[in-house]
Amino acid sequence: MKAVIFKEHGGLEKLSCTEVPEPKIDPSEALIRVRACALNHLDIWTRQGMAGITIPLPHILGCDVAGEVEAVGSKTDGISKGTHVVAAPGISCGRCQWCQSGWDSLCDEYKIIGFQMDGGYAEYVKVPIQNLIPVTEKYTWEEWAACPLVFLTAWHMLITRAQLKKGETVLIHAAGSGVGSAAIQIAKVFGARVITTVGSEEKEAFAKKLGADHVINYRRSDFSKKTRELTEEKGADIVLEHTGAETFLRSLASLSKKGRLVTCGVTSGPAVQLDLRFLFVRQHAIIGCYMGGRAELNEAIKLLEDGRVKPIVDSIFPLEETRTAQQRMLDRKNMGKIVLKVA
Ligand code: ZN
To answer: Deepest in the core among 83, 95, 176, 268, taking most CB within 10 A?
Structure first.
């Protein structure tokens, strides 16, 4: 089958589109004929290599897969060949206390497709049968591929972790990013007032269209000052952080008293120096978030099927142009998800 692989960690030049053997499934697995696979920042970190994490090499990236079931192992679970599916990106044991209580991503055996195992930058990918989520034809393959990771993450952050309540103000970073564009829509469905940030004028209109009430161009004004202005100096009840070093301290400064900061990513760097006095005096909560549980993903998919939130596709590239696609994400040019079209 055709796949984009890398044999060693490094830059974009390590990616090559080539022929590799099709994955072999065991009785508990299914083979998906990949139609589309979305890009995530995780793909970049995985390609570059991360200290302390062993990635099997050669490696196929990609955790956001949409396609048709090509074959299922013996435990079919009622899903047959040809079923349209997206793959839940996280794999866990299903038995431990974390899995049993809906905290799949805390499972000791938790793995992400395309990260610790081969993923969807390929014509076929294998996943455990329980990771198959049947979907309707409401959206195109590229649109479905744009959904799992970012809608799961945004749901977990806003609904499960921050416990967003109607009427609260949420500051969401980077409307153009996958998580940002999903989070804005989910926050609006739950009745929040949304402030978001963008880095260019064309992204301002995009953010408004997603439903944001206020859009701050972070290149022209300080988002923290602006957030305080927009909230009569109170600050936002919730800040959704996923950029890290560049924004984290000003994100904290944007919070209201008793505000909650949820964080899931460090695209601008992982280290910050915190003045704890402000944290305890203002009684802030900093809440770490990593992926989410299968039940949360099902809830998010339901919102998508009902049309209350929508997949946001920025651009579509063939597998052969994966390097260009990843470069676009590195350049922060995207408005929504960048997707590889596979067949
Ligand atoms: Zn488990």
So the answer is: 176
The pTM score is: 0.96
Task: Please report, in angstroms and rounded to a whole number, the separation of the first and last CA atoms in the chain.
Answer: 12
- Report the pLDDT value the prediction gives residue 267, as an integer from 0 to 100: 86
How close is the Cα of 187 to the center of ligand 1, in Å? 29
Taking alpha carbons only, the member of 279, 267, 272, 194 closest to residue 237 is: 194
The confidence band for 74, taking pLDDT boundaries of 50, 70 and 90, is confident
Which amino acid would we find at residue 89? P
Q: Which of 72-76, 143-147, 184-188, 282-286 has the lowest mean pLDDT?
A: 72-76
Residue 244 CA to ligand 1 center (angstroms) comes to 28
Residue 173 pLDDT exceeds 70: yes
Helix (H) or strand (E) holding 227: helix 223-230
- CA–centroid distance, residue 148 to ligand 1 (Å): 20
Q: What is the CA(206)–ligand 1 centre distance, in A?
A: 39
User: Which domains does the chain possess?
Assistant: 2-147+311-341 (3.90.180.10), 151-288 (3.90.180.10)
pLDDT of residue 77: 67
38 CA distance to ligand 1 centroid (A)? 26
Residue type, 12: L
